[in-house]
């Protein structure tokens, strides 16, 4: 009786098949990775909004303890350097020199110091020039956000504004979000005078900043 032998042949991928597989993987990666990046930035935006919301609660508690007045202090940038004094604070300059740092003022009202840090913050490159990088944001000043102290300078709180819900109290310092694209999708986060938070366009942010002469 004859015996049949079975032979098993293993056939590997040809070069063309291998290239096709690699191309498919590359296409899938190109589709998936932007989605991952978007989801990651959305997560950062949510964290930033949460930080501002917690800052709002801290300011509200402070205000409750001090007869409705907002914290009598300056953000880190103003406290250490006063770069905007000629624009905003000149009428109150002697008073501003007596003000503390709002971060320290709010410390008794917060649980985590991380709420002062925006996760989308990057080193700022003025005019997009890598040789002029400035790292004076959270690491240096302890706060990623700008605090508008005009009501506090007049020893007021929400009553300083005609429309607190439309007036900025704390917002992203947009230039600290990196390079030539300081905004995340052209938007930034903002805490309003009535303590609600919102992601807004840059134009909307500018319109919500009320200097002393136009608060009412």
Structure characterization notes:
The relative contact order is 0.14. The longest helix has 51 residues, at 15-65. This protein has one domain. A hairpin with a 4-residue loop joins strand 5 (187-192) and strand 6 (197-201). The strands form 2 sheets. The chain has a 4-stranded antiparallel β-sheet. A two-stranded parallel sheet has the order 1-2. The chain has 216 residues and is α+β, with helices and mostly antiparallel strands. The model is unreliable at 177-182 (pLDDT under 50). It is 39% helix and 11% strand. It has 8 helices and 6 strands.
Mean pLDDT: 73
β-strand number:
6
Unreliable runs, pLDDT <50, ≥5 residues?
177-182
For the largest beta-sheet, the strand count, sense and barrel status come to: 4 strands, antiparallel
Overall tally of structural domains = 1
**Cα-to-Cα separation, first versus last residue:** 109 Å
What spatial form do the alpha-carbon principal axes imply?
elongated
> What is the succession of H and E elements?
HEHHHEHHEHEEEH
Helicity range of the residues? 25-40%
Rg, Å, rounded: 26 Å
What class, by secondary structure content? Answer: alpha+beta
How many helices? The count is: 8
The fraction of residues assigned to DSSP E strands is 5-15%
Sheet with most strands: strand arrangement: 3-4-5-6
């Amino acid at each position: 009786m004859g015996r049949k032998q079975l032979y098993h042949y293993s056939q590997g991928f040809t070069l063309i098949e291998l290239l096709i597989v690699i191309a498919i993987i590359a296409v899938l990666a190109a589709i998936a990775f932007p989605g991952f990046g978007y989801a990651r930035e959305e997560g950062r935006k949510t964290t930033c909004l949460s930080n501002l919301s917690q800052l709002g609660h801290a300011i509200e508690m402070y205000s409750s303890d001090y007869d409705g007045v907002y914290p009598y202090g300056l953000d880190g940038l103003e406290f250490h350097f006063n770069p905007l004094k000629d624009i905003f604070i000149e009428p109150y300059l002697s008073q501003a020199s007596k003000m503390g740092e709002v971060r320290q003022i709010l410390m008794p009202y917060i649980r985590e110091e991380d709420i002062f840090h925006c996760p989308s913050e990057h080193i700022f490159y003025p005019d997009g020039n890598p040789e002029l990088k400035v790292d004076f944001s959270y690491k240096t000043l302890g706060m990623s956000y700008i605090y508008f102290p005009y009501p506090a300078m007049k020893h007021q709180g929400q009553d300083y504004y005609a429309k607190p819900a439309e007036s900025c109290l704390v917002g992203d310092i947009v230039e600290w979000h990196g390079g030539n694209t300081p905004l995340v999708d052209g938007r930034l986060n903002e805490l309003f005078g009535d303590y609600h938070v919102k992601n807004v366009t840059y134009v909307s942010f500018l319109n919500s900043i009320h200097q002393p002469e136009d608060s009412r």
